[in-house]
Amino acid sequence: MLAAPLPPSNSILADDTSLEQVIELWLKGKSPHSQRAYRRDIEYFLSYLKDKPLGQITLNDVYAYQTAMEGLGWAESTLNRRMATVKSLLTFGNSTGLLRVNVGKAVRLKEMPKTFSQRTLTESQTLMLIAMTPKLRDRVMLRFMYAIGCRVSELCALKWQDITANADGTATVHIFGKGRKNRWVKFSADTWKELQNFRGAAAPDDHLFPSRQGGGLKPNQVRNIVKAAGLRIDVSGTSPHWLRHSHAGHSVQRKVPLTLLQETLGHESLNTTRNYIAANPTDSSAMHLPV
Q1: 241 among known catalytic residues
Q2: pLDDT score for 273
Q3: For 152, which of 4, 59, 143, 240 could close a Cys bridge (C-beta 3.0–4.6 Å)?
């Protein structure tokens, strides 16, 4: 379905590059989960346009697709994600010279209400969620995820060799994260002690959190562990990202500088980090005035 050749252009790629090859290049470097989601979204778009060649897609085509999606009654978050995927592919095509004009640039995504606060635990809930988890591996994992604010895919990839002890008793974990970017997150001495007590005879190249089937835990296994932990404190629907949101929200409440939080979470844009201010309105400039 994705083999239609693109028209010749002043491209840094070969003129006979197929649409499938363009999509593969566009997806390169993204996580397997992201690749599956983006490919599915693009297939919806191309199917709607009846596999029209990428170089012939117009702004009217993009708007027509957006209108058609709205008519299907999809959630705004789903519509926004699918439109963002289309815009990303068109931007890639333009940046490589395959498309002379980026027709997706003019399309605006819908403003979405900030829902971080609905997916954030309080500090007491977070500590209870950790403390009430009976299995040692799972308890230490939940504490570590919250402590460093990592993504579930990042957690599952970590090995003991990715952690370095510091002279002050703390430790630093090297994370190879989203967008194939490296970051280093320093965490507390208490959390490091918990990890060391859990480690046992694990070798440097062993996964930080092993699975009984061998290797490291898989993302779905971690999701199930977090979901079960949430139910123990009567909070349904919890996921690994809740712990990341909670790390961010609690950091904002404790006046952690946004630039430091951005580096810790691995956000490409500071605007993403600023969303947590709106989700945690415990302070404002109005609270610092003499009236």
Answers
A1: yes
A2: 64
A3: 240
Establish if 6 belongs to a structural domain.
Answer: no
CA–CA separation, 274 vs 272, rounded Å?
5
The CATH code of the domain that includes 132 is 1.10.443.10
CA distance linking residue 62 with residue 88, whole number of Å: 13
Catalytic pick from 151, 245, 247, 250?
Answer: 151
- 60's enclosing H/E stretch is helix 59-71
Q: Which residues contact 262 (CB under 8 A, 6 or more apart)?
A: 270, 272, 273
Q: Which residues form the domain of 38? A: 19-106
Instruction: Confirm whether 244 is a catalytic residue.
Output: yes
Q: Determine whether 174 is an active site residue.
A: no
pLDDT for position 70:
85
276 in catalytic set: yes
Q: Within 10 A of 171 (CB to CB), how many other CB atoms are there?
A: 19
Q: For residue 174, what is the DSSP state?
A: E
Q: Is there a catalytic annotation at residue 178?
A: yes
> Of 65, 88, 106, which residue sits at a domain end?
106
> What is the average pLDDT value for the chain, to the nearest integer?
83
Q: Are 173 and 222 in a shared domain?
A: yes
Inside any domain, residue 111: no
Asked if residue 252 and residue 124 are part of one domain, the reply reads: yes
Same domain (yes/no): 144, 171: yes
Read off the pLDDT of each residue in 37-45 and give the average, rounded to a whole number: 90
CATH of the domain at 54: 1.10.150
**pLDDT by residue (tens digit) across 149-179?**
999 999 999 999 999 999 999 999 999 877 6
DSSP 188-221: -HHHHHHHHHHHTT--TTSBSSB-TTSSBPPHHH
Q: What would the mean pLDDT of 43-49 be, rounded to a whole number?
A: 90
Contacts of 51 (CB under 8 A, 6+ apart): 1, 2, 4
Sign (positive or negative) of CA dihedral 186, 189, 192, 196: positive
In a domain, residue 154? The reply is yes
